[in-house]
Amino acid sequence: MLKDKDEYHSFKDIIITFPDFIIAYYEYISNRLYFKYEQALKSTIDLSKYYREAKDEEIKNLFLGENSLFFSNNSESIIKNTSIYSKKRIFSIIKNLDILKEVDINIIKKQAKLFKITIEFNDNNQIILPENDKELLNKYIKFFNGDLFKHPFFDKFFESNSKKEII
Q1: What CA–CA distance (Å, rounded) separates 95 from 62?
Q2: pLDDT for res 6
Q3: Closest CA to 54 of 141, 125, 116, 126
Q4: Contacts with 72 (C-beta within 8 Å, 6 or more apart), sequence order
Q5: Residues in contact with 111: Cβ distance below 8 Å, sequence separation at least 6, in sequence order
Q6: Which of 105, 96, 107 minimizes the C-alpha distance to 127?
Q7: Which of 25, 30, 31, 59 is deepest in the core (most CB within 10 A)?
Q8: Within 13 Å, how many C-alpha atoms sit on residue 96's CB side?
Q9: Considering the entire predicted model, what is its pTM?
Q10: How far apart are CA 44 and CA 48, in angstroms?
Q11: Do 53 and 47 meet the contact criterion of CB atoms below 8 Å apart?
């Protein structure tokens, strides 16, 4: 339906509306399309395959699988103790597992220590996840998803859900 003055009109055909403001622009040199608002992007392009939550089977087989970086004796407890947001972060971690596996264990331990996270490894060099501590589990997930930051000038730590590159 479309409102014109005091009347509403319905259409059977597909119509395109053009707002009176810019929602996106194309940069020819970089060959990139930029959206001004996240909502405009989501209403234009289906991003669900990139920002969906990890399914239970993916958590069991990919996030906690034999060849994964992470280990738990009780995958059901991990699934139960993760929120929808954490499952979205787990999906992101799964997509980046090959990169994370290349990071030296000592570097992981050193970086985790900055955020007061003590990481333990099993005999297969897999990170043992805290199964029964929901808060600590979520901190692990945020850490490995790159959602924790240290301020460069102050001794303060922050949490962010943005992956916007600024440099």
Answers
A1: 10
A2: 78
A3: 141
A4: 64, 78, 128, 129, 131
A5: 143
A6: 105
A7: 59
A8: 13
A9: 0.70
A10: 12
A11: no
- CB contact set of 130 (below 8 Å; sequence gap of 6+): 136, 137, 140
Geometric angle at alpha carbon 126, from 147 and 124, rounded to 5°: 165
Average confidence score pLDDT of the chain = 85
Written as six digits, the tokens of 135 are 């808060």
Banded pLDDT at 79 (limits 50, 70, 90)? very high
Structure tokens at 156: 């303060």
Evaluate whether 2 touches 15 at the Cβ level (below 8 Å): yes
Amino acid sitting at position 5: K
Three-state SS for the chain is CEEECCEEECCCCCCCCCCCCCCEEEECCCCEEEECCHHHHHHHCCCHHHHCCCCHHHHHHHHCCCCCCEECCCHHHHHHCCCHHHHHHHHHHHHCHHHHHCCCHHHHHHHHHHCCCCCCECCCCCEECCCCCHHHHHHHHHHHCCCEEECCCCCCEEECCCCCCCC
